TrEMBL record:
GO terms for molecular function: beta-glucosidase activity. One of its GO terms (cellular component) is cytosol. Belongs to the glycosyl hydrolase 1 family. It comes from [Clostridium] asparagiforme DSM 15981. The keyword Protein transport does not apply. This is Glycosyl hydrolase, family 1. The keyword Cell cycle does not apply.
Length: 490
């Protein structure tokens, strides 16, 4: 059956997305220090609906990670060995026709603990080599500065992002990489999914919940994210100063929430839930806190310390574009406790009876992407960039070595159609980088068997395998999509 053709803009940035901590491996090579990601354990038997079990961590577990050299238990330590194999992977991305590739810089490759006066040259050289190899192949780097890769030393000794000094340490890192990669990187992102601070605080802000009084945890998290907002604004300031013409984006998990029905209380609940999600981008786009957050702090006696000039910093150094991840939508219901639940990368929620569900319990909603694009653009009037979207699945290697992933092709076809429809409706979309364009270690459970890529990597959940790369059927399909600038989705 034919599909509707949409006109994507000239220069649309087709590509793919990765994160250094999920693909690089080489976790303790060439002077790299430990990051929070190196403490993430392989969790094969966790209930998908138990969000805390997937993402939670204790102080004892952090100590165990520090005393272990295991790469089987700590899957992000092995990744897919991108650190040593990136040239071959870039060749495959070039063959697909990538215009851009989203990567991240591991802070701990540049400053292993975050405190060093001088950067680690081997780390700087690795990323310079990577970016030069990308540019050589006509692939524009899209670089995330803080993608769940905080130095573990700062989490242990500076309470993660809670202490004000961490802002200066992060800005030192930013200035270092801006100066080094001035002629190589035009597009940057500050904090990956900055709204995830309450969902998994250790991963996002280096906070281990059991180290703090429960009654103070909410206030601590708000202080951490305020410090990240200030750091984001300052990073934007120095990027514009050091690399004229470069662009900085914020990055949000778009947790689009529908009301269960048109009951006024469900409508209001969904409205407020969406507004809580917008808050994280609002500050980076508009440069000020929304009043409902300040009122909430006052009602709940939450004290967030602002440094001298913070309000001016936020107001004067807003981002150039808004990027976001999109995987699924949620449903808000005043009767949620009585309803069937589903899970996902966001949290558990009420099941939407109109949507299909993946084998990991994520609801598939391509129309929601069109909705999210229109909604975000109407709110911010800034260019949008979809920097994560994808389908995790257990791929089957056939006897002849092929991987027939028609389910992935159909998923992407529907979501790219939704992007085209939003563009036709007037939304300014810069580009699209599907998540895990090559198989990599999953964020929450450190699995390899949950595969996203157009390229198969021969590694199992324990890091065993040849690490050989193999094209899936979706590889050639996405290659055709890019070659036709989104015109041929059949």
């Amino acid at each position: 059956m034919g599909v509707k053709q949409y006109q994507f803009p000239e220069g649309f940035l087709w590509g793919g997305a990765t994160a250094a901590n999920q693909c690089e491996g080489a976790w303790n090579e060439d002077g790299k220090g430990m990051s929070v990601a190196d403490c993430s354990t392989y969790k094969p038997n966790v209930d998908p609906k138990d969000y805390v079990a997937q993402h939670g961590i204790t102080g004892k577990q952090v100590e165990e990670a520090m005393n272990s050299d295991s790469t089987e238990l700590y899957g992000k330590r092995h990744g897919i060995d991108f650190y040593h194999r990136y040239e071959g992977d870039l060749d495959l991305f070039q063959e697909m026709g990538f215009k851009t590739l989203r990567v991240s810089i591991q802070w701990t490759r540049i400053y292993p603990t975050g405190l060093e006066e001088e950067p680690n040259e081997k780390g700087l050289q690795f990323y310079e080599n990577l970016f030069r190899a990308m540019k050589k192949r006509g692939i524009e780097p899209l670089v995330t500065l803080h993608h769940y890769e905080m130095p573990l030393y700062l989490a242990n000794h500076y309470d993660g992002w809670y202490r004000r000094e961490v802002i200066d340490l992060f800005i030192k890192f930013c200035k270092t990489v801006f100066a080094r990669y001035k002629g190589l990187v035009k597009y940057w992102l500050t904090f990956n999914e900055i709204d995830s601070v309450f969902r998994h605080p250790f991963t996002t802000i280096g906070i281990v919940p059991d180290r703090y009084p429960k009654e103070k945890l909410e206030e601590i998290i708000y202080q951490c994210v305020h410090n990240q907002f200030v750091a984001s604004a300052l990073a934007t300031k120095y990027l514009h100063q050091l690399i004229p013409g470069a662009q900085m984006g914020c990055m949000l998990t778009r947790t689009l929430t529908y009301p269960e029905n048109c009951h006024p209380q469900n409508m209001l609940l969904a409205l407020k839930t969406n507004r809580e999600n917008f808050y994280y981008a609002d500050i980076q786009v508009f440069g000020e806190y929304p009043r409902h957050i300040l009122n909430d702090w006052k009602r709940n006696n939450i004290q967030v310390e602002f440094g001298p000039g913070d309000e001016e910093i936020l107001k004067c150094h807003t981002v150039d574009f808004v990027s976001f991840s999109y995987y699924m939508t949620m449903v808000a219901s005043i009767d949620a406790e009585k309803k069937e639940k589903v899970c996902g990368n966001l949290a558990t929620g009420v099941k939407n009876p109109y949507l299909d569900v993946t084998e990991w319990g994520w609801q598939v909603d391509p129309t929601g992407l069109q909705y999210a694009l229109i909604d975000l653009y109407d709110r911010y009037r800034k260019p949008l960039f979809i920097v994560e979207n994808g389908l995790g699945s257990k791929d089957q290697v056939e006897a002849d070595g092929s991987i027939i992933d028609d389910y992935r092709i159909e998923y992407f076809r529907q979501h790219i159609e939704a992007i085209g429809a939003a563009i036709e409706d007037g939304v300014d979309v810069m580009g699209y980088t599907p998540w895990g364009c090559i198989d990599l270690v999953s964020m929450s459970t450190c699995q390899m068997s949950k595969r996203y890529g157009f390229i198969y990597v021969d590694v199992d959940d324990l890091g065993h395998g040849t690490y050989e790369r193999r094209k899936k059927k979706s590889f050639d399909w996405y290659k055709k999509v890019i070659a036709t600038n989104g015109a041929d989705l059949d």
